[in-house]
């Protein structure tokens, strides 16, 4: 191979100038770069240029190209969106973006506690802020997402109990179930216990408990947004059988809702996307796992945990990895998963978000979400042929059954999309999952109801009957 | 004093920022607000009443979460100060974190992904409204297929280890589909491959067999053949390994695995030096993955999000995670649709389409360089590495074990063993002292196969002058180890904080993973913060 | 409190080409060849570093004259003499000095010498330790000809750094083997290190590192993991012949059984059948039912068989049949071999040849490594290795 790239000068390649390359080659006594590849057999050499699009070498050309592609998108700012199903449209305060776009945070990686003190403190604070919201003493540095967090939490329960069965007592997002199943299937068997009225059937769950059950897995809010009211009963039943109560959740409502830890949960896990992260086409998720400050539980966590530490200077606050050797305490055949590049920056973002929101902000947001959810339920249920999927308490998301409209859920979605509205997600032939947040106000919900009614072929502006309130 | 000014010192008199910033809870002032939340509209309240009062008993939180109360600018200032107490790659000559390919993440790419046309996209929107992002992801898949030589690519995983998990999950599903799931219970890796290969294989239920290198540091083919059997599910290897040594017998490794019916999985974490030079599929691999946050420039974000790319041969394609993006039609009429996971797929391994902002960044990076640029990046990374190797070996006490007299690809695992024997100063102590010069430094994964190791990977992003600067700092610390070892042994001296103590972190009675745990375990602190006299500390914490 | 004992004649045989310095004859011979003692000088180098690190004057427990006092003074520290040996020092003086250092309150005994010195120090420590209580730690300042025992720091200054850290607040200790060659055999061209004792040695954990990945952070954890791996492979009804070594000792401990430090103990279904069995007793046990030997790696040379476990003889291995060995070792032990093969030397070339090739070494639960095995006394072994036809014996 000659040197096809010898004259390729590029702003990302400081040493691409031919003079510097010659100087460096001379310094190491090499005639050409090709010498460095002596161990790569000739038969494996590509020997031709990669077939890639022509490069856009000037930054402005690149920007124009990528922006041109992205301009084909119509975002939830252009459409009225009631989409949830794992990725949520919440407001992201400007300060959150400002902080996580700082070069020092954005490009840091594996620095030591003294050279990356800020990273350690920011992530310790994330853990601590989440801990207040969740009322639990130990929270990990984020793992990939809520799916992984739940898979790991259940695997922990399996390792701790040495048992194989997991009772799934809530409606779980199918994609999340898929991930969890494939992750734990060597060690655990997931058994679905059908829900009743949108939440756990406690009696059915209790009947299937036994000394081979590692955990009861609850989701609250569930895949349909239902808030589980029976956590204390589930906890009691699980604990009586020697099983753990693992609760998957979205922390957005805990400004007003009782956190699962105060209702008997042993492991609480979920996703932090709602806390200050953009939707990013589903590309900004982070997973949390919270446990009590119990050595047995902590030792099962595969993730990093940053903790306070003293330093050589009395009184100085430093940080470091807590109980790091736990990851090597591979005392069971199953092993302990791994630690790797996951979602730390999103953890910092969620920490900034919680610091900005404060106790009042989270309480107000929780109330607003409950109120608008209820309002949207009322408005949509008032559309002829539309009824609520269940009677449970819902936070942010709920399903509506459109079977009475004579139209399928997919047909209604298509009709409303034509109006510039994403009315929700088709989760059954005649079932639509609708999501409201602080970004979907009363007028937006009213518009949804009006357009839905129109799509169903009926007017919808009638008054809500008094008896349907609350 | 007069002009002209003196030249800058040869070694920087760096000092990390030290803001003495309190933990955020200490900054709380009751009543301050960082952001406000819209009020419940009167019309909504009229319709639904008091939703809090109507919550079922037990569901209403008794006391609000004890989050700090801070005005907006105070939150901003606090976090900006913390940001300054970081040695991010943009400030550092970040060649000290070998294996991690700390290259430049172009700023334009950060700008591109910040547009609402990406940030405000929901993954389940009408695909007709998401044509731009779907096209970018699809195009990136095709580019990575070409770069790896593989047939199909999934970009769903969020990091290298997550991608390794997807690799082993696909391998497991493949053998199960062929009725050999029970028979094939072992995965073979090498000790210089990334440890997550072994860890993920174990998590997937496999026994892990490790091959050590021969005395010259090359993967031992005879040992591999001794390990292979009909019980082998796969070999999972890195190449070049973390020593920067390319396994010249890699084809024989893959062929030997195939001969017993095993699959060959390629961890391309160290691909940065071989882009456009050689490809995974051409060596016969069935599965491989890239780390987009390494080779393809996306920022490391304090430890993620990264992004993984799983590339497979046609035979493994049915097992890829879903959903998949498909192109319908050609040219200007082409449109992009989303298809769910197929019947043999391992299913969903992460939400939706992966770390989309990083996919757009990686796409932009490749588009900025093209085929010629990728090759130039690889060759420059390798040139930089061999230049650095020559310079480091000029430092007395430093060595590069294995493959003596031969070139390396994109990184080298060096050793300070000679310096250690002479001075008693360890590689870890040298690393701590390097930070005082504003340089990050890392030793090695465990176990330390190379004694007193350090691993440098210069990538293509650093100029000759910067490489020289890093080596000058290394040489200075080596000199200190001989002449003033106490300075090294008691480092760091110029950081935000001093050497931290492990004892606080390893004792369950003392460790504090969160602020609330800290206050519970150290009631005297809680009392002091509450402004109470010391004597009531126990009572207040009870 | 730091104690120091110097074997003033350690190392004199090396430069003199005598393969060691044990025995008055060798020492006299070395003196005739003009050899200079160097152990005192090496001890001074180590203590100077302690002096630099600690700063002020430090009292060091030691023996009079060349057995320690001289080095302590040369390093600028203050000797406290606890024993006064005679003019011509002998191994017995080293044993007595170690004993006296412990009695005087030393918590770490530094010794300058080689494997022979380590043996003597171990004997001195054990004389005290036998009375119960925690055993005192020891650390070798490398100054001998033979240093096969992993109880030596890599250099005198490294020993000093460890000692300073010990004084500064302590270090964890690991149980390490004391090996020694039979020097008469060595002079006849045979390298045969034997396991003689074990002693606690301070080890230094790394300082805070970017912990990206799982790190078997301590040797104890690695040994424990390897033992976990073996435990799940043990089968009921099989007699396990536990060879000597720290890893097999940990295995016995986890089984709730005592383990002789240097012997081969026979275990069946969690019961100890025989301690320190002889070759003929092992053959009796093998005849009684299915059996397998559990062996670890002895010393830095990588011997599986033939050093320190000669009871596991060629006859015993033949009797064990197709799969005679279950090999267990922490990964780090294999790492330290640096690509060199494991070694077997049963004295029977045919048995050695059958064992040569590759062996699977259990390193953890569900993890193992493949290591080459050579039989130095059986020429065919190298051929089988390069052909890759080796089997796991």
Automatic annotation (TrEMBL), chain A:
InterPro entries according to UniProt: GcvPA, GDC-P_N, PyrdxlP-dep_Trfase, PyrdxlP-dep_Trfase_major, PyrdxlP-dep_Trfase_small
Pfam families: GDC-P (PF02347)
Keywords: Oxidoreductase
Location of the Glycine cleavage system P-protein N-terminal domain: 12-450
Residue stretches in coiled coil: none
EC number(s) from the headed UniProt entry: 1.4.4.2
UniProt keyword Oxidoreductase present: yes
Key word Nucleus present: no
GO molecular function, one term: glycine dehydrogenase (decarboxylating) activity
NCBIfam families documented for this protein: PRK00451.1
Protein's UniProt name: Aminomethyl-transferring glycine dehydrogenase subunit GcvPA
Organism: Agromyces soli
Source organism phylogeny: Bacteria, Bacillati, Actinomycetota, Actinomycetes, Micrococcales
Gene for this chain: gcvPA
From TrEMBL, chain B:
Function text: The glycine cleavage system catalyzes the degradation of glycine. The P protein binds the alpha-amino group of glycine through its pyridoxal phosphate cofactor; CO(2) is released and the remaining methylamine moiety is then transferred to the lipoamide cofactor of the H protein.
Reaction(s) this enzyme catalyzes, per UniProt: N(6)-[(R)-lipoyl]-L-lysyl-[glycine-cleavage complex H protein] + glycine + H(+) = N(6)-[(R)-S(8)-aminomethyldihydrolipoyl]-L-lysyl-[glycine-cleavage complex H protein] + CO2
Pfam family, one: Aminotran_5
Keyword annotations from UniProtKB, A to Z: Oxidoreductase, Pyridoxal phosphate
One Gene Ontology MF term: glycine dehydrogenase (decarboxylating) activity
Protein species of origin: Agromyces soli
Enzyme class: oxidoreductase
Protein name as annotated: glycine dehydrogenase (aminomethyl-transferring)
Ranges where the Aminotransferase class V domain occurs: 173-322
InterPro entries: Aminotrans_V_dom, GDC-P_C, GDC_P, PyrdxlP-dep_Trfase, PyrdxlP-dep_Trfase_major, PyrdxlP-dep_Trfase_small
Enzyme Commission code: 1.4.4.2
UniProtKB/TrEMBL annotation, chain C:
GO MF assignments: kinase activity
Name of this protein: NAD(+)/NADH kinase
Lineage, uppermost ranks: Bacteria, Bacillati, Actinomycetota, Actinomycetes, Micrococcales
Keywords: Kinase, Transferase
Region listing for Disordered, in residue ranges: 368-393
Key word Lipid metabolism present: no
Annotated SUPFAM superfamilies: NAD kinase/diacylglycerol kinase-like
Pfam short name (any one): NAD_kinase_C
Superkingdom per UniProt: Bacteria
């Amino acid at each position: 191979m000659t040197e096809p790239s010898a004259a390729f000068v590029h702003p990302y390649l400081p040493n691409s100038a031919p003079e510097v390359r010659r100087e460096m080659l001379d310094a190491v006594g090499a005639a050409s770069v090709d010498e460095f590849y002596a161990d790569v057999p000739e038969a494996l050499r590509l020997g031709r240029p990669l077939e890639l699009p022509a490069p856009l070498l000037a930054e402005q050309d690149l920007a124009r190209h990528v922006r041109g592609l992205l301009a084909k998108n119509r975002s939830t700012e252009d459409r009225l969106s009631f989409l949830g199903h794992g990725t949520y449209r919440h407001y992201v305060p400007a300060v959150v973006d400002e902080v996580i776009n700082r070069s020092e945070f954005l490009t840091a990686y594996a620095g030591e506690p003294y050279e990356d003190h800020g990273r350690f403190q920011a992530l310790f604070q994330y853990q601590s802020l989440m801990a207040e919201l969740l009322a639990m003493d130990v929270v990990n540095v984020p793992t990939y997402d809520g799916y992984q967090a739940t898979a790991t939490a259940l695997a922990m329960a399996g390792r701790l109990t040495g048992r194989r069965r997991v009772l799934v007592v809530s409606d779980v997002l199918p994609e999340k179930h898929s991930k969890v199943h494939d992750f734990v299937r060597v060690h655990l068997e997931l058994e679905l216990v059908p829900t009743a009225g949108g939440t756990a059937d406690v009696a059915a769950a209790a009947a299937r408990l036994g000394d081979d059950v590692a955990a009861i897995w609850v989701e609250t809010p569930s895949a349909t947004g239902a808030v589980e009211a029976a956590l204390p009963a589930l906890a009691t039943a699980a604990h009586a059988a020697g099983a753990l109560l693992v609760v998957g959740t979205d922390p957005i409502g805990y400004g007003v809702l009782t956190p699962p830890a105060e209702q008997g949960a042993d492991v609480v896990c979920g996703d932090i996307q709602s806390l200050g992260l953009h939707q990013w086409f589903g590309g900004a998720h982070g997973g949390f796992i919270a446990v009590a400050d119990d050595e047995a539980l902590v030792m099962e966590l595969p993730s990093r945990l940053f903790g306070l530490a003293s330093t050589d200077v009395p009184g100085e606050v430093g940080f470091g990895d807590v109980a790091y050797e736990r990851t090597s305490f591979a005392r069971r055949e199953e092993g302990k998963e791994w630690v790797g590049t996951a979602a730390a920056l999103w953890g910092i973002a969620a920490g900034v978000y919680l610091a900005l929101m404060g106790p009042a902000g989270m309480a107000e947001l929780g109330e607003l979400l409950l109120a608008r959810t209820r309002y949207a339920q009322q408005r949509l249920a008032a559309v002829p042929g539309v009824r609520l999927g269940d009677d449970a308490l819902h936070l942010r998301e709920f399903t509506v059954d459109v079977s009475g409209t004579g139209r399928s859920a997919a047909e209604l979605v298509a009709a409303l999309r034509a109006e510039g509205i994403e009315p929700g997600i088709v989760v059954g032939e005649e079932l639509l999952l609708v999501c409201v947040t602080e970004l979907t106000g009363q007028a937006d919900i009213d518009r949804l109801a009006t357009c839905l009614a129109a799509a169903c072929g009926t007017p919808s502006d009638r008054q809500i009957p008094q008896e349907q309130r609350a | 004093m007069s002009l002209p000014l003196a030249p800058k010192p040869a070694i920087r008199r760096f000092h990390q920022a030290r803001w003495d910033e309190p933990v955020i809870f200490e900054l709380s002032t009751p009543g301050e607000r960082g952001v406000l939340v819209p009020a419940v509209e009167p019309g909504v309240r009229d319709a639904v009443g008091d939703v809090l009062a109507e919550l079922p008993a037990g569901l209403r939180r008794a006391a609000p979460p004890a989050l700090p109360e801070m005005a907006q600018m105070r939150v901003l200032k606090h976090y900006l100060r913390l940001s300054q107490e970081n040695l991010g790659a943009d400030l550092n000559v970040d060649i000290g974190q070998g294996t991690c390919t700390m290259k430049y993440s172009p700023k334009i790419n950060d700008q591109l992904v910040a547009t609402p046309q990406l940030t405000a996209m929901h993954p389940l929107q009408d695909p007709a409204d998401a044509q731009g992002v779907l096209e970018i992801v699809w195009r990136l898949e095709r580019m990575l297929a070409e770069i790896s030589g593989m047939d199909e690519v999934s970009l769903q995983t969020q990091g290298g280890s997550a991608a390794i998990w997807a690799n082993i999950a696909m391998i497991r599903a493949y053998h199960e589909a062929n009725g050999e799931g029970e028979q094939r219970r072992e995965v073979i890796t090498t000790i210089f491959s990334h440890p997550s290969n072994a860890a993920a294989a174990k998590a997937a239920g496999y026994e892990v067999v490790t091959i050590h290198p021969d005395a010259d540091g090359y993967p031992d083919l005879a040992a591999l053949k001794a390990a292979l059997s009909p019980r082998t599910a796969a070999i999972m290897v890195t190449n070049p390994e973390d020593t920067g040594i390319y396994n010249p017998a890699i084809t024989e490794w893959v062929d030997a695995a195939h001969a017993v019916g095993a699959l060959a999985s390629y961890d391309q974490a160290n691909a940065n030096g071989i882009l456009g030079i050689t490809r995974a599929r051409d060596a016969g691999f069935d599965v491989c993955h890239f780390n987009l946050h390494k080779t393809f420039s996306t920022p490391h974000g304090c430890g993620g999000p990264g992004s993984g790319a799983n590339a497979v041969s046609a035979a493994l394609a049915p097992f890829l995670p879903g959903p998949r993006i498909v192109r319908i039609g050609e040219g200007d009429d082409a449109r992009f649709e989303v298809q769910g996971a197929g019947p043999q797929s391992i299913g969903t391994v992460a939400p939706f389409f992966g770390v989309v902002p990083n996919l757009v960044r990686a796409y932009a990076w490749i588009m900025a360089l093209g085929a010629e640029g990728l090759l130039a990046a690889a060759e420059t990374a390798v040139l930089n590495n061999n230049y650095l190797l020559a310079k480091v070996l000029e430092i007395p006490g430093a060595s590069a074990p294995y493959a003596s007299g031969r070139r390396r690809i994109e990184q080298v695992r060096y050793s300070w063993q000679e310096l250690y024997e002479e001075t008693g100063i360890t590689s870890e102590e040298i690393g701590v002292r390097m930070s005082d010069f504003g340089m990050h430094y890392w030793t090695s994964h465990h176990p330390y196969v190379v004694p007193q190791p350090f691993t440098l990977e210069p990538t293509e992003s650093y100029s000759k002058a910067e490489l020289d600067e890093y080596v000058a700092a290394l040489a200075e610390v080596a000199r200190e180890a001989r002449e003033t070892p106490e300075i090294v042994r008691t480092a760091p001296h110029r950081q935000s904080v001093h050497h931290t103590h492990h004892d606080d972190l390893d004792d369950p009675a003392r460790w504090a993973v969160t602020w609330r745990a800290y206050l519970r375990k150290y009631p005297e602190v809680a009392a002091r913060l509450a402004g109470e006299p010391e004597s009531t500390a126990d009572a207040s914490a009870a | 409190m730091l104690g120091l004992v110097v074997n003033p004649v350690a190392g004199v045989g090396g430069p003199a080409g005598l393969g060691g310095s044990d025995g008055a004859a060798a020492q006299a011979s070395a003196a005739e060849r003009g050899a200079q003692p160097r152990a005192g000088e090496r001890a001074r180098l180590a203590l100077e570093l302690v002096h630099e690190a600690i700063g002020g004057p430090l009292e060091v427990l030691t023996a009079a004259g060349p057995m320690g006092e001289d080095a302590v003074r040369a390093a600028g520290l203050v000797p406290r003499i606890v024993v006064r040996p005679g003019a011509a020092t002998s191994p017995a003086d080293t044993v007595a000095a170690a004993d006296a250092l412990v009695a005087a309150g030393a918590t770490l005994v530094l010794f300058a010498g080689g494997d022979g010195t380590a043996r003597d120090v171990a004997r001195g420590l054990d004389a005290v330790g036998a009375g119960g209580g925690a055993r005192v730690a020891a650390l070798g300042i490398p100054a001998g000809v033979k240093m096969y025992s992993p109880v030596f720091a890599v250099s005198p200054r490294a020993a000093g750094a460890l000692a300073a850290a010990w004084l500064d607040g302590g270090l964890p200790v690991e149980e390490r083997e004391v090996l020694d060659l039979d020097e008469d055999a060595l002079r006849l061209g045979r390298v045969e290190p034997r396991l003689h004792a074990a002693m606690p040695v301070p080890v230094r954990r790394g300082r805070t590192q970017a912990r990206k990945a799982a790190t078997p952070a301590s040797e104890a954890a690695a040994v424990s993991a390897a033992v976990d791996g073996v435990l799940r492979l043990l089968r009921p009804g099989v007699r396990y012949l536990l060879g000597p070594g720290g890893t097999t000792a940990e295995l016995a401990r986890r089984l709730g059984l005592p383990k002789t430090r240097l012997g081969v103990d026979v275990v069946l279904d969690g019961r100890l059948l025989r301690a320190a069995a002889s070759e003929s007793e092992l053959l009796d046990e093998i005849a009684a039912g299915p059996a397998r030997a559990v062996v670890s790696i002895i010393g830095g040379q990588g011997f599986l068989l033939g050093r320190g476990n000669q009871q596991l003889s060629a006859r015993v291995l033949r009797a064990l049949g197709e799969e005679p060995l279950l090999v267990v070792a922490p990964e780090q032990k294999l790492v330290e071999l640096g690509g060199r093969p494991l070694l077997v030397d049963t004295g029977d070339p045919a048995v050695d040849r059958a064992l040569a090739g590759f062996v699977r070494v259990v390193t953890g639960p569900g993890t193992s490594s493949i290591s080459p095995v050579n039989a130095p006394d059986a020429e065919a072994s190298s051929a089988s290795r390069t052909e890759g036809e080796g089997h796991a014996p």
